[in-house]
Amino acid sequence: MKKIAESAAALLGKSEDLLKSGILKNSGNVTVYPDSVHKLGNAVVLMVRDDEKKSLIVTACCDKEIPAGFEGEKVVLADKSVALFCVLSEQNAAALRKHFPWCAPRSLRNVRTTVGCGDRLGLATVGHVLAAKKVQVSPVLAQQSMRELTMTNRTFRGVVDDACFLVFASDYREGYGADGDHLKTIKDIDTALAAGMPMITLDLSDVMNAAAGDWDAAKIDAAFAELPADLQKLVIAEYADKDFVLGDDVAVKIDALTAKRCAVMYTSALDFALEVYNHLKAARGDEFDLEISIDETSSPTLPSHHLFIVRELRRRNVEFSSLAPRFIGEFQKAIDYIGDLDEFDRQFKVHALIAQNYGNYKISVHSGSDKFAVYPTVGRETRHYLHLKTAGTSWLVAVTVIAKRDPQLYRDMHQCALDNVADMLKLYHITADFNKIPAVSTLKDEELPALMDMPEARQLLHINYGPILTGNLRERFFKAMHKFEADYDAAIEAHFDKHLTLLGVPAKN
To answer: In three state form, how does the secondary structure of 410-430 look?
Structure first.
């Protein structure tokens, strides 16, 4: 790394392009991320990697020209200039965001098409950026839920920092988001906000009365009678026996019982959404994206319920960027859509029309990874006013890379998944028959990658990322991922190209 720093020092007075070419010629056995070479005042900042880790190098003619905020091992070079060799620490991520503001996540509320890139490893950003650069989409590069943080021993701060470093390495200046995913409490929301996450996905499952969806009329009437009198009056006047026309041949009908049922099911949740919105407004002004999630339920969101929720959010003056219904069919983790595609198309069109008639917010598709069969419909009917939320698919791309490049490690990961699957099934709803997966001891090394084309094996590895990433395989796994970084970047790019192409996202002009 000293050789690279000396090359940078010798070229401090040159243009950024000349700096880059000169540094690349003299990098030796250390790899320079070419797009990371940036002049900063009278200093140069860049990212490199050796066989073990990534680092930042900050070089300047003297101590006082080192940009404020960076910390690292100081080395005096042959020409008396100085360099800092910096680990990828929280402080150095903060310094990057200070000096290169485009390294910080921002609100994407006015962006038409966004894609959540749930990177459980902190390694996928380069591949995500390579795919995003080709089309009219903004990526949410830092996205994790509380469950994912627990399963990977990460923090919201670490998730944002990991994305920041690789955004810098990629010189990606088009803007990216960061999402505190499926949060349920103000406390957790504040943790995400403190980490610089502008997007909050508010999961209302704990504050909505989902059970009332199955109550009979008498029980609904009794519960409705307990609501404030002025609210009862409003619900009957605004919704009971009303037709809401959405298009030439589409209308949503709400009878009196459905109106009462919606009030019983959602009033507390909608009031909490208003509380959260006011909290976000006080914390960030207009620089936030609020997503409303009602998808964590056992039954699909009926169009009448979707319409009620949206109208009531609007009546409360809650500004939200996107809303995630629970769609018909099965959106299971890691595999394609399960269900009647014609019926999905029919119902999804109505959900999209509701969004277009009541504010043109983005329809958010949760558990959206690899749902290739429905992407054409989703893209077409939303007119790309859309947020696609992916998570485990980037992890499974990593698993595939390991299966190809380090078969023994894959075999050990597969066994770890089998050893822990009973516990993981308590956390994830899937219906895979794991008995269909062949014993890996019967497979040749070259046959292992094909397992990631098998739904049952994909789901097995998907739900067991926690035990693999926090157990005794962790160090081997991350060493392998560092070694095969280029393979992973290319595989992520290709995988997300497929997602975005099937959604029909337009190419950049």
So the answer is: HHHHHHHHHHHHHHHCCCCCC
- DSSP state, residue 37: -
Query: Measured between alpha carbons, how far is 286 from 317 in angstroms, rounded to an integer?
Result: 14
The secondary structure of 47-77, three-state, reads: EEECCCCEEEEEEECCHHHCCCCCCCEEEEC
| pLDDT higher than 90, residue 296 | no
CATH 2.40.50.140 for domain 112-210+289-392+499-503, yes or no, is: no
3-state secondary structure of 446: helix
Q: Which of 6, 162, 289, 291 is catalytic?
A: 291
Domain boundaries, the chain: 2-99, 112-210+289-392+499-503, 393-497
Q: Judge whether 399 and 413 are in contact, CB under 8 Å.
A: yes
Tokens 């026309």 locate to 245
Is 291 an annotated catalytic residue? yes
pLDDT computed for residue 509 by the predictor: 85
Residue 59 zone, left/alpha/beta (φ > 0; ψ -120 to 50; rest): beta
Instruction: Give residue-wise pLDDT tens across range 351-370.
Output: 999 999 999 899 999 999 99
In 3-state terms, what secondary structure has residue 245?
strand
Catalytic: 181? yes
Helix/strand/coil for 43 = strand
Pairing of β 38-40 and β 43-49: antiparallel
Contacts (Cβ under 8 Å, ≥6 apart) of 209: 223, 264, 265, 266, 268
Q: Which amino acid is it at 349? A: K
Per-residue model confidence (pLDDT) at position 101: 98
For residue 4, the surrounding DSSP H or E stretch is helix 2-10
Among candidate residues 119, 161, 162, 181, the one labeled active-site is 181
Q: How confident is the model at residue 297 (pLDDT cuts 50, 70, 90)?
A: confident
Segment 312-354, tens digit of pLDDT: 999 999 999 999 999 999 999 999 999 999 999 999 999 999 9
